[in-house]
Amino acid sequence: MNLSFTGFSYLLGFFAIGLLTYRFFQYWRREKSTLSKLFLYVTLLFTLFMLITAIGGFFGKNVQILKGVVISATFLQALSCALIAIQ
User: Fold this and answer.
1) pTM (2 decimals)?
2) CA 3 to CA 31: how far, in whole Å?
3) CA dihedral over 33, 35, 41, 44, signed as positive or negative
4) pLDDT, tens only, 4-19
5) Per-residue pLDDT for 39 more than 70?
6) Per-residue 3-state assignment (H helix, E strand, C coil) for the chain
7) Are 45 and 83 in contact (CB under 8 A)?
8) Has residue 3 got a pLDDT over 70?
9) Residues 54-67 as b or e (16 or more Cβ within 10 Å = b)
10) Cβ(10)–Cβ(50) under 8 Å?
11) pLDDT of 77 strictly over 70
12) The dihedral formed by the CA atoms of 39, 44, 46 and 47, expressed in degrees to the nearest 10
């Protein structure tokens, strides 16, 4: 098995951003404003990006998985940037 430091770093980033997303979720439940909902969506998309990239980081030799990771990560980043532009 090919162990990757990239996969571990994205996994740690996933946990850190996941905690931030949970805080934004708590704030959205309390506030129920449009801005808090958009911040929740942006961090949720970034958390999904980190998870997909962390999973793909452990399969560094499999080209098909890496292609899927690049396509899905690019889509999630573009969607997140579009939500930021709405704000």
Assistant:
1) 0.83
2) 43
3) negative
4) 788 889 899 999 999 9
5) yes
6) CCCCHHHHHHHHHHHHHHHHHHHHHHHHHHHCCHHHHHHHHHHHHHHHHHHHHHHHHCCCCCHHHHHHHHHHHHHHHHHHHHHHHHC
7) yes
8) no
9) bbbbbbeeeeeeee
10) yes
11) yes
12) 140
Q: How far apart are CA 52 and CA 74, in angstroms?
A: 11
Dist. CA 86–CA 73, nearest whole Å = 20
Tell me the CA distances in angstroms from 68 to 30, 43, 54, 62, one per residue in order.
Answer: 37, 21, 13, 10
**CA 81/CA 55 separation, integer angstroms:** 22
**Residue 46 burial (CB count, 10 A):** 19
83 within 8 A of 41, measured Cβ to Cβ: yes
